[in-house]
Design goal:
By secondary structure, the protein is an alpha/beta fold. It is built from 10 helices and 9 strands. α2 crosses α10 and α7 packs across α8.
């Protein structure tokens, strides 16, 4: 469905501007308390907490090559804190500023790590309710956890933004010339992590000829798929796309994908999948870009953050 409830600021209707502006200019102050937990395979995850003494917790999953330090994550943590929730933003393996111990890293389908974080939070702290919030890759991961796995009953709701729920077609869009700058930036950042792993695990991973990689197809064929047990990039994309699993979701879930998101093809707007599931709502604002939804106000609160807290508190949509 199309929604006109978000009106972007003047000069912010363009999807690329919406996408880039918060990355460069937005600042949000959050004081985290970091906790490192050991995973089931003797690796580690760094969790950043911002608590207010609530019995409700929002767990926030960032996007590709993001971290808990990104403005969109901090903005969401501030929003949930100001509206009655503790916040837990978690860094994927190798995303907290230190390479992880295992050869495996993170990808669109690491529901085992998300499940581990949820299980840790619910057993260590007296929370009665947990909500999930995900951005981009983190949104796909959240939907996959809810629809493919057996989610923990303590998870009562979810909100996701800018979700590439069809990974194959999203990868094709990102490979287009119009997205060359984004693609190049992602590949440079991923190469930095590969180089860090090369120092820890010489002989197990290398970046010889990396300059020939121009898109996610080549990257996932060479790294993501073989390292994480997939046949190739296409096998990875097919098994880790959340779109086919959306009809299985049983908790109230809000998906917000802007119509002018430069990363998302038509296939990433799961209208049919949502129509068959009364627990899931799809919102398609005309503008917003990729993890954008810029707003200017005294609270430094973006439109997306207002939507999230409204849905988490009332399971309703803010017009």
């Amino acid at each position: 469905m199309s929604e006109k409830c978000y009106t972007p600021p003047l000069f912010f209707r363009n999807g690329h501007i919406q996408t880039i502006f918060p990355v460069i200019f937005r600042k949000v102050d959050i004081c985290y308390k970091r906790e490192r937990i050991t995973t089931f395979d003797n690796d580690f995850l760094d969790l950043d907490w911002s608590t207010k003494g609530s019995n409700r917790l929002a767990i926030i999953s960032h996007g590709l090559e993001g971290s808990t330090d990104r403005a969109y994550v901090k903005g969401m943590v501030k929003a949930v804190n100001d509206n009655g929730w503790d916040g837990l933003a978690w860094n994927y393996r190798s995303c907290s500023g230190e390479p992880n111990r295992q050869l495996r890293s993170y990808h669109n389908g690491v529901t085992d790590d998300l499940s581990w974080v949820i299980n840790h939070a619910r057993h260590r702290y007296p929370y009665k309710e947990i909500a999930l919030i995900g951005f981009s890759l983190g949104g796909n991961l959240t939907l996959l956890y809810l629809g493919r796995e057996r989610p923990d009953p303590i998870v009562k709701s979810a909100v996701v933004f800018s979700v590439p729920c069809d990974l194959k077609k999203s990868a094709r869009v990102l490979a287009k010339p119009s997205n060359k700058l984004y693609m190049k930036r992602f590949l440079v950042m991923l190469n930095q992590k590969i180089k860090a792993k090369m120092k820890l695990m010489p002989g197990l991973i290398d970046d010889n000829g990396y300059e020939k990689i121009r898109d996610f197809k080549a990257f996932d064929d060479r790294y993501t798929a073989p390292i994480h047990g997939f046949k190739n990039a296409v096998d990875y994309w097919e098994k880790c796309s959340s779109k086919p699993f959306i009809p299985n979701i049983t908790v109230p879930t809000l998906i917000i994908n802007a119509a002018n998101d430069p990363f998302l093809p038509k296939a990433c707007y799961p209208v049919k999948e949502v129509e068959s599931n009364k627990q899931v709502r799809l919102c398609i604002p005309e503008s917003g870009g990729h993890v954008g939804f810029v707003s200017f106000n005294k609270q430094n609160l973006y439109w997306s953050e207002k939507q999230a807290v409204k849905f988490l508190n009332y399971n309703s949509f803010l017009n």
